[in-house]
Fold this protein.
Amino acid sequence: MKRPYLLLRHRDIPDLNDLTVYRQHGGFEAFRKAVTTMQPQEVVEIVKASGLRGRGGAGFPTGLKWSFIDQKNWPHYVVANADESEPGTFKDREIMEGNPFQFLEGLMIAAYAVQANVAYVYVRGEFWHLAHQLDRRIQQLHNAGFLGDRLFGTDYSLRIYTHLGAGAYICGEETALLESLEGKLGQPRLRPPFPPAVGLFGKPTIVNNVETLANVPLIIEHGAEWYRSFGTEKSPGVKIFCLSGRVNRPGNYELPLGTTFRELIFEHGKGIPDGKQIKAIMAAGASSALIVADDRALDTPMDYESVPALGAQLGSASVIVIDETVSMDWLIRKTVHFFQHESCGKCTPCREGTYWMKHLVDRIHHGEASQNDVELLYDVASQMRGKCLCALGEFSIEAVLSAIERFPQDFAARVAQQEPAL
Amino acid sequence: MNHLLEKYATEIETTLAKYPPDQKRAAAMPLLYLAQREYGYVTKQALREISEILDVPPTEIGQLVGFYTLYYDEPGGKYRLQVCTDLPCALRGAEEFLEQLCENLGIQVGETTPDGLITVEKVMCLAGCDRAPLFQVQTAEGITYHENQSVESAMKLIRTWQSNP
């Protein structure tokens, strides 16, 4: 029997994005339970015990993050990160379209847990339509008595506002997101202090990804132990894997953490089109190191511990499939152009490094390069490692270094060819 | 006289109410969208008006326009057709799609059709990688997504704009 969906529940239940339908299926009972029967600290403890880890990419334990909130400095804020912009990632969008109330309920429980009376949803500007839908749904929640003052007759009050971004990948980084929410350039802050100490408007703030928050009502409803029955010991729960690239059935797949690459790509994704062979996998979108798609890799469980053994990261679990027809010099030109365009310009290693990498990948691609240029590219990327202000700068070199290390033949062939690629 | 403030007093008040009273600057991004809706792009006048409403120097509002890709400091086509050609989309033919679309319209990427109707642009990931080729259409009124596109389906949409400019 097929396991019912936990996050993509709208695939089992029609019209779940309608408040009445969501409530008929137990919607907002977890929020009510938390506010009327639990101490904020109890909510934090249950989420901690569930082992839920941040689904935005970093995999940081969610309950632990909540427990870091500074109790001496008020007010507190919670911000949902709905700035989904990593190439290969399109899961938060489906949640907000299909199952928006579960996400909002998770946000509301998070707000109660850290006693925030105001929460924001930072929605990327391209999701203009979604942000307006969320505004209408937030209004419905006010009308239904789930948002506003003195909820369920308690002293707790909560308001939620959306804030629309305007096109900047960097705003997915939580401190850049907070800057942007304050009406400034989306540039990361120097840390520490981290947002739970000094966040939005200088106040203690929790920033959580949309998918992370969508897990929270389930944990409150069914308990930490139940949640731990899915996934692996260190990576509990289910995850939405975004499958894209050269695969027959791209899309979102909700699976337990620890599912193998082979099952995702060949069972759910139905394999590679046109009878081609799989060549490489990127597990964390454009920020990924390239994994050589051999049997060992394909049989690796996709969880936060196993993927690093392949010299890569699980990140947001955005699996891009690369087939044998793709040359890695073409591929890294795509990723480098992306990061060069999206570099916020604040720190020198990323701003200058991505600029020089762009020149080098263009030269290689246009058949104007020698093997020395490939080595220079490797050198530039290596020099950026560990020196960027935020993780996004570091991400820009992952594909470059791994491509040159693991697929040197592609570069040798391009250099030898001395003619432009198609 | 502040045109934006006079014409949209209630909307601006609602926007400002989302943020703490001493953090008015947070409303800069929503107000830039409002300015684009009113003027088509962020004019110098709009910068002055927003600056006045928020009590933030106009240059600090202006730099947001340069930083964020969905704001414009010059007029473009009525429809900005923005195609994603990032890696996952490129693996599904987005680059060829964009090239053929431009050929059909007789313009290069970044250019506007002579009738001023359409600007074609190349943009970064739109979070629709499984439904590529895809593009978004940005107008003064907002943004819509168009997924699983072919040159034929895109041209069909464009013809509806052309017949009803």
Notes: Chain A has 17 helices and nine strands. Chain A has three domains: 9-228, 238-323, 328-417.
